[in-house]
Amino acid sequence: MSAGTSLGRRLVRAGSLAAALGAWQLLTAYDVELWLRFAQFPTVGEVASALADRVGTAAYWQDLGHSLRRIVTGFLLAAVLGVAAGTAIARSRWAADLLGPLVEVVRPVPAIALVPVAILLLPTNEQGIVFITCAAAFFPVLVSTRHAVRALSPVWEEAVLTMGGGRVRVLWSVVLPGALPGVFGGLSVGVGVAWICVISAEMISGEYGVGYRTWQDYTVVDYPGVFVGMATIGALGLLTSTAVEAAGRRVTSWLPHATAGAPVPDAAPPGAPAPRPVPVPEAKAAPDVGTASEAKAAPDAKAVPGEEPAPAAGGHPAAEKESVA
Amino acid sequence: MSVPKSPAAPPRTTPRPAGPEGAELALEGALLGHPGGAAPVGPLDLRVAAGEVLAVVGPSGCGKTTLLRTLAGLLPPLSGRVLRDGVPVRGPGADRALVFQHDALLPWRSVRANVELPLAIRGVDRAGRRRAAEEWLDRVGLAGHAAAWPHRLSGGQRQRVQLARALAGRPRAVLMDEPFGALDAHTRTGMQDLLTGILRGSGATVVFVTHDVDEAVHLGDRIALLPSGRVLDVPRPRDRAAHGAPETRALRRLVLDSL
Predict the structure, then answer these.
(1) Which domain holds residue A115?
(2) For B31-36+47-258, which CATH class?
């Protein structure tokens, strides 16, 4: 929606950020001590100059590359595995019986609590961090995929069956594309949770990486450095969640949006009588409209790893129920 | 709505290929319904000849949709047999296309890609299915909407796309579940004329569910009444001019009395 954002709204957004930075600068520059203690807190200026110093070093970019590589690997693995497992559980009774209980038992365990498991199981630290990242993102993707697949209207599957399509065709032409809006809700939550876990895992057991560096700075009392780390994490998180959002919008461009407006006028042949407009039943034609906006808010919500996202996949037209007459 | 009065009227660059031979459909003592569901329908004996247009009329909830779903193979009969050309039906298949009462277009596929789907399933190459899809869209008067998402179309337009999609697969039987039920009277008339034009040329067997007696009389070769299973012949010719004819009026009264 940002494409249509007016200048006024942009100003408000920039102003909000500037006001927060200004308040920070004032509170720290004057070492305010009003219950909250800002005396030890680095000023915006100190953080900015520390950032400027760091950006010039190869180590900064190396850390950034390490963290990005870990999250991309773990997240992509989680996306593939989560969609596959979620679809299987939703579509197959066997898979539901075999995987369902296992998933529900493992899901409440915070991914970061899997550090000992990762150390025991995997030969290298690097693989352990990727494992934890993957575990963190896996469950939101699985759960939202499962919901999205279950919420699909049976009429689409029946349509494909009566065209002679089989199970594989139904999977590729109905289940996966139809579940995409819900899947992307899970991916958006997942990428946020993945950042939380990759940074935590780096702090605990990492060599290199933004989380590792931030913790190192803390142990040597380099507070501006800690804030540089936090700002870097924030920027990277914004980058990845924006990428997921953009990809999601791209592949779900078929969703009716509020801005899509009225149906296109009928291409009346010349001389035809003026057609009587037939309104589109908006409510019926609006599955998952809320997904994009819900998903957008989700990564900021510091979701507990494995926390079930809002039933983003709901709202499919249930009107087909009556088709059994 | 701009439903063409006669779809065969505009000159075509490609001649219409000969349609497939219609399938003969039959129910033999078939009890229709869902296992453990509400009161089943039947047992019914019904024979639909190859190429025939059978209208199925009955009050709401009498099992019209259940009958279609059973013929399509989506719902096995509780007892008795469902036959296609004398062979028991084991499941859904491309030979019997179902036009759903409610919009069953895949919303993530463009209008054209929806119409291409049965051809893709049959393994038609990309160029061939694109050509066929555009021809069918042209025939239902929606050539200009090929690239649109289904939700951008009106209800009547979407039903026309569904019709094009069903026919693009060259089914031997077309099963239609009140395809015009949700449309206003004007659009409905246009759709009926369009359907008559297309179906007469296709050779496919048609089973057409409606709650509108006039529609049944206008479109059907015969009319099956549910839940009794009684079948009535419709006198020919059945163009719109014949609507006021005494035989038509008598038939309409007979149908209404039988329901």
Answers:
(1) 58-253+290-315
(2) alpha beta
Q: Residue A273's closest chain B neighbor by CA?
A: B2
Mark which residues 69-128 of B lie under 8 Å from A by CB: 69, 72-74, 91-98, 100-104, 106-109, 117-118, 121-122
Q: Minimal CA–CA distance to B173: which of B66, B63, B75, B52?
A: B52
Strands (E) in chain B, as ranges, are: 25-32, 41-48, 53-57, 79-84, 87-88, 96-99, 173-177, 205-210, 222-225, 230-233
Q: Give B64's contacts in chain A (Cβ within 8 Å).
A: 325
Domain CATH number, residue A192: 1.10.3720.10
B2/A272 CB distance under 8 A: yes
Nearest partner of B50 among B95, B99, B98, B101, judged by Cα: B95
Q: What is the ipTM of this complex?
A: 0.82
Clarify whether residues A215 and A70 are in a common domain: yes
Asked whether residue A105 falls in the same domain as residue A231, the answer is yes
Nearest partner of B103 among B62, B67, B155, judged by Cα? B155
Tens of pLDDT, residue by residue over A103-150, are: 999 999 988 888 889 889 999 888 999 999 999 999 999 999 999 999
